[in-house]
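Issue 218. Parser rejects a valid record. Input:
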Amino acid sequence: IMNILIIGSKGFIGTHASNFFQEKKHTVFGCDVVTDYTEKRYFQIDATNSDYQNVFKNNIIDVCINCSGAASVPLSLEFPLKDFNLNTLNVFKIADAIRLYQPSCKFINLSSAAVYGNPESLPIKESFGLKPLSPYGIHKMQAEQVLTEFNTFYNLKTCSVRIFSAYGNGLKKQLLWDLYHKFSSNKPIELYGTGDESRDFIHVSDVVQAIALIIEEGTFDNQQINVANGQEFTIRYIAETFKSILNVKQNIVFNNKVKKGDPLNWCADISKLKALGYQNKVSIENGIEDYINWIEKNMN
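Output the parser choked on:
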């Protein structure tokens, strides 16, 4: 039984992680900017001036999972300072609080495949050079450098998990959310790109399963680990799958425009993750169907 602190515990991945580790009977501490008067082990952080010192000073924490931060390429282009504060500066503050008060705590920071940009070849290995295409990707890369700094100079146990296209119940943005709302309108569906752009999708329950494996089996010597399924799906395939599950007739049109900061094709090499025992449990088709059911249950 471990004491696990989840920062960003009210967010998409944070909520799933909190539920998962509570079900496994670990002691879970939550931490976020959202007000919550009912949760016992919960720390509210000031959104404008985050401070994690007291959390680590007054509690024994075995593992800290940072699920907080901004997760929008367009917003990072519009508000780069806010994105830097949430994705880089906050990570430094958390690492420094661990250094001061809980130096034996394992620190997992949720990074992103955005650090890779457009890779020279697929599948993408962790050893590839990092060429981010957006402020978001750059700030995630800088957060990884922060973890390198604290591991190198202070022996902190650190791991950056580079999450590819995570989706699932609770996510109210990005491709699947947009598709649902577009298909609900009875108009032709217009999407960015050519349809041949691809992503490596991973269901949030598989993301959490991967994090649990990393806690158990990871070396925490400044590791970087891809969290994905090693499967490449085109945006056209995802849209057509959505259409067939919804059983609707609209045409899907691609406008051949590329969104600024968006990479073209992603597929991860997940050898490192598989070596820890990872096996994906949710297929893309089942995951999409489950997501549609969740939206319909919660929107009506």
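Fixed in the parser; the record now loads. The longest helix spans residues 80-101.
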